[in-house]
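Possible regression after last week's pipeline update?

I re-ran a chain I had predicted before the update to compare outputs. Posting the input and the new output here so someone can diff against the archived version. Not blocking, just want to make sure nothing changed silently.
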Amino acid sequence: MKLKFKQKLFLYLLLIFALFTICIIVFEQKREGKFKTDELREKLNIYTELIQPRLLGNDFQNLDTLIKTFPDTIRVTIIDKNGNVCYDNVISEISSLENHLNRPEIVEAKKQGTGMNIRTSQSNNKEYLYYAKKFNNYFIRAALPYNIQTQNFLKADNLFLYFIVVLFIAMLLFIHLVIESYDKSVEQYKDHKYRQEITGNIAHELRTPVTGIRGYLETVLEKQLDREKEKYFIKQAYDQTVILSDLIRDMSLITKIEEAPTSFQLTSVCINELLYGLKNDLQVIMQEKGIEMEWDIPENLAIFGNSNLLYSIFRNLADNVISYAGENVHIQISGFQDKQYCHFYFSDDGVGISDEKHLSRLFERFYRIGEGRTRDSGGSGLGLSIVKNAVIFHKGNIRARNKETGGLEFLFTLKNII
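New output (post-update):
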């Protein structure tokens, strides 16, 4: 049975998000399990620290009084450096006990100072969680019965698991809705190679951040990293999830513009106020790259349209300059209105585009002049496509051209109803 375009895309995304979800669950389960193990280790370590002062002078008679203050389930064993058992609060006939130097927790404590192991006791055939610590001539070992209560304590909390599963299902539903809407827009194109190109582009753009996320998490799970390196790789994985989230958000916005234009609320939008807000939002990044933005727009120029889409036009054009035009660039915006349209010129004096053939394709989804262009900037590859769709939504058109003095210029119109 041959799968349809949207079915292939959905299965592909299902696999990607399933792998991503599994990585998150495994990582969290391992992290929480380690946290609880460390908590139990610290608890047993406290018991050994309390016992140690009583061993001064090789006097074990005072131990019983102290250990009676411990929980009844705690088993305490004192072992000398030769492996002989000197004291055990559970086994009365310690003379019958064999040498303990080969016990896993003692072997580890001898090498590293402390040791921990879960096994069945050869003395009474009960399963314990052992913790041993080396003190001068003795090993002090505290143990807990490895029963249902201890096992449940060491298990990771399932609340996070439930949350991830619910989030995974919600994400699948969201992806399904996006693909359904996206498939309708693709259906209008009769050229089947075109469909393959769109599918390939979407798959490629999604695969890149997901592969990064998987790689970073696998490194954290498989390598013994110190806290700083572990934090670095988790931060990198988080950054990739932000890119993935932005990509899905932009795909959803384009689909909404094409398929549900009536869902956008319309109001009177003052372009000068919009640009002041934009400059404030981008102030930090523009200062870092030495970019200045100025405009010459009539004070009374207003458009009856959707404020978010109008903002996205100027925001994505500005982001394009920030990402590709270089540093110490000047952005100039000008505009005027006639009876039917508002005309805008958005230009910069950056590097421009050397090959004119790329200009007509700038507004295509995921189109990149160079293979590393969008990849280096971390963008979704949909910014200028959103610009074009938002312009069309407002009954206008847009084109790009190189300036003779250097840089790139976008010329677009928006329907002037006011």
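Follow-up from reviewer: compared with the archived run. The longest strand covers residues 127-135. Marking as no regression found.
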